[in-house]
Amino acid sequence: MTKTIKPKETTFKHAEAEWFNYHNTLKEIARLRESIMNPFDDDPEDPTIVKGANSVRMTGDPTQRMATRLATHKRLEHLSEVTKAIEQVYNALPDNYKELARLRYWNKSNKLTWEGIAMRLNIGRATAIRRRNEMIQATIELLGWR
């Protein structure tokens, strides 16, 4: 029998913040991919751009450069890992848990209290919070956070 290790409070809050920011993170991933695929904005961190006295030239194969930048971009890698974990947890949830996730994290029109969420789902407040804890715990475990 595997015992679940309770995460640190800061880890829990960070993972929950990632759920709240999921849609913004998807937008940031798209923006990063676009900037990587269209790097002619003179990225100072790009080692494939060689700057001479009067010119800029690109070294090597452009497709290879783009693939390398996509594969080695640390922020893009991290954000992708987080969104994939959230998606994996969300897709494995039963419908009533999915509704809780949508109401708690992705409901932009009005922020509901735990009582409001519980009422909408026809469950108790403690049950709603317990389900949230299970979702966040699963996310933390998938990410390997502690």
From TrEMBL:
This is Transcriptional regulator. It comes from the Bacteria.
